[in-house]
Automatic annotation (TrEMBL):
Keywords: 4Fe-4S, Iron, Iron-sulfur, Metal-binding, Oxidoreductase, S-adenosyl-L-methionine. It comes from the Bacteria. [4Fe-4S] cluster binds at C66, C70, C73. It comes from Clostridium oryzae. Coiled coil: none annotated. The keyword Oxidoreductase applies. The keyword Transmembrane does not apply. This is Radical SAM superfamily protein.
Amino acid sequence: MTYKHMNLLNKCTICPRNCNVNRNEGMKGYCSADNNLKIARAALHFWEEPCISGEKGSGTVFFSGCSLKCVFCQNYNISQDSFGKNISIERLAEIFLELQDKNALNINLVTPTHYVPQIINAIEIAKNNNLNIPIIYNSSGYEKAETIKLLDGYIDVYMPDLKYFDNKYSFKYSNAKDYFEFASESINEMVRQVGDVSLDDNGIIKKGVIIRHMLLPGLLFDSKKIIDYIYNSFGNSVYLSLMNQYTPMNKSADYPEINKPISEKYYDSIINYALSLGIENGFIQEQGTVSESFIPPFDLDGV
């Protein structure tokens, strides 16, 4: 069977790293992936935003490898250590259908950027076999708009991070000197494709963009700039998810300024700032989310 877009891996420039390696010949770029799909977990997940998880759960597929690799990543054993199992495109399509059979509200593709060609083909196969629930693209935000354009018509909901405004922080903590430029351009394309947020009668998202921002210690001013940008660019047509769950892990100990959770006062101040601008659509987290217990077990469940 001939698959679409796999030739893009011959000289891979799918993400902003532009590694130019031939993944079809087994070479691996910054993301640590060749042309094999590798996933670490495929199961119902109940800890996403309420409009994603609902009561039945989101059908999350956690992909191994990552094009960003933040020093504080909570999923570092799959994103940076590349734990997971190689599967075929056909198997990924089966996983989508198995999650639907488990009454998942959606298919939630977590850290999918470096597998866009394979995902497109798996979606086509699954839809030809009656996959009919929304598909969510859940990413770091470090994307190329031209790659996002390939997903037009395949993705119903985009859920990108917008981690940093000032590139000095993205370079320090994610080795990306150009994070905001790429993230902002790709989010514009996401919004262009799927438009305003649409919920069903049960409050479950069917279409639209949710922009996530996880607060980091000491970056309150940067967070305010991000919120300014989102509101000035999109108003209330997108949802904003402000996250307080930062848990010092991975290499955080090498950066004392971020080797601590954020305070309740710090979090409240950014919520109040967002409200003062006029942001109406969004999500905030309760206290008590700073815990490794909220990190899913990456045990090849459902793979």
